[in-house]
């Protein structure tokens, strides 16, 4: 928590009144970026180097309840988190930005996704926390404002305050007031996201440290912002025109290019496990055989497949353990 962050929150909340309820609660979906956020231009205000675009993961996400309390306590999936854990620290630090609501809080979080295994639990986590806080404090803020606040907790959380296709704008203002997310007015009921859980172990280097290291040490990062901008436009076009091969190809290329910038960091960031690579090769082989199947990967070993409902049975035949999500189900 810094003075700049405190001032930012004051600006966002200007004109709102806090009318406390006994409890606030909310759900926020996880999201998977089709065009990734990788790198910040301002770490304090969590301003990204580029815009990004995601699709939410249906009812996979985070449910959070929050109350004002005599002391801080944080529960994750029913278990009390120790004050030395990163989860506790990030939650409690973030809540210190809201003294107008309370000095201490009890937070109960239920995740239907593995925490910190590259399935963006910090995204749905901070989004649900901010939505629950808005409920507790009675601010009645709109989603755009809530995305600005969630962004401060975790960049990708700005996108998780909505469902469906969501764009998070990089913005241009130094004060961070125009770096918010917005829902894209489009549905794609046939779209499927398949989750292949390679490992649910805690990853050694989180996204935040990983992207900062990449920006600081990877020569390949120099070419990333221009590609990310072009990919985002291609994804937007593919959504508008319902061009699935264009969407899949752009998303996969974007994710693998992001991993290339990580590999070229020092010390190198290698999130992919042998099993992840095996899946990548299988997807390429199946595509060679004519199956319209693509993938995306975040800063972790898990693979998310992208395909249309019409080929679901072929995809399941190749990956029987697949967990299928209908983003517009
Ligand atoms: C690879 O949102 O976790 O998932 O803003 O530092 O909290 P912080 O980072 P975070 O990074 C997400 C990175 C990504 C790509 C994406 O979701 O766009």
From TrEMBL:
One of its GO terms (molecular function) is diphosphomevalonate decarboxylase activity. Residues 195-319 form the Mvd1 C-terminal domain. It holds the Pfam family MDD_C. Its EC number is 4.1.1.33. The keyword Lyase applies. The keyword Lipid metabolism applies. Keywords: ATP-binding, Lipid biosynthesis, Lipid metabolism, Lyase, Nucleotide-binding. Residues 28-181 form the Diphosphomevalonate decarboxylase-like N-terminal domain. It is an enzyme of class 4 (lyase). Belongs to the diphosphomevalonate decarboxylase family. This is diphosphomevalonate decarboxylase.
């Amino acid at each position: 928590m810094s003075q700049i962050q405190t001032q930012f929150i004051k600006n966002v909340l200007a004109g709102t009144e806090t009318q406390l309820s006994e409890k606030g609660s909310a759900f926020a979906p996880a999201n998977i970026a089709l065009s990734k956020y990788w790198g910040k231009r301002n770490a304090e205000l969590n301003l990204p180097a580029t815009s990004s675009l995601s699709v939410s993961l249906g009812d996979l996400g985070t449910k959070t309840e929050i109350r004002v309390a005599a002391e801080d306590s944080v529960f994750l999936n029913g278990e009390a988190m120790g004050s030395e854990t990163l989860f506790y620290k990030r939650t409690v630090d973030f809540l210190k930005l809201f003294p107008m609501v309370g000095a201490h809080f009890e937070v109960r979080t239920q995740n239907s996704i593995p925490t910190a295994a590259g399935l963006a639990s910090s995204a749905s986590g901070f989004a649900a926390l901010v939505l629950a806080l808005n409920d507790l404090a009675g601010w009645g803020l709109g989603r755009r404002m809530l995305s600005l606040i969630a962004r401060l907790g975790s960049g990708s959380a700005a996108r998780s305050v909505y469902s469906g296709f969501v764009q998070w704008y990089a913005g241009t203002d130094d004060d961070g007031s125009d770096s918010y997310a917005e829902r894209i007015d489009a549905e794609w009921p046939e779209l499927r996201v398949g989750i292949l859980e390679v490992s649910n172990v805690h990853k050694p280097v989180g996204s935040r440290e990983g992207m900062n290291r990449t920006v600081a040490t990877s020569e390949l990062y120099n070419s990333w912002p221009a590609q990310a901008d072009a990919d985002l436009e291609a994804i937007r076009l593919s959504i508008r025109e319902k061009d699935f091969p264009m969407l899949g190809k752009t998303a996969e290329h974007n994710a693998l290019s992001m991993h290339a910038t990580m590999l070229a960091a020092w010390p190198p960031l290698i999130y992919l496990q042998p099993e992840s690579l095996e899946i990548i090769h299988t997807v390429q082989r199946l595509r060679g055989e004519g199956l319209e199947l693509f993938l995306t990967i975040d800063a972790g070993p898990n693979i998310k497949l992208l395909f249309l409902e019409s080929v679901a049975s072929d995809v399941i035949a190749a990956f029987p353990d697949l967990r299928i999500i209908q983003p517009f189900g």
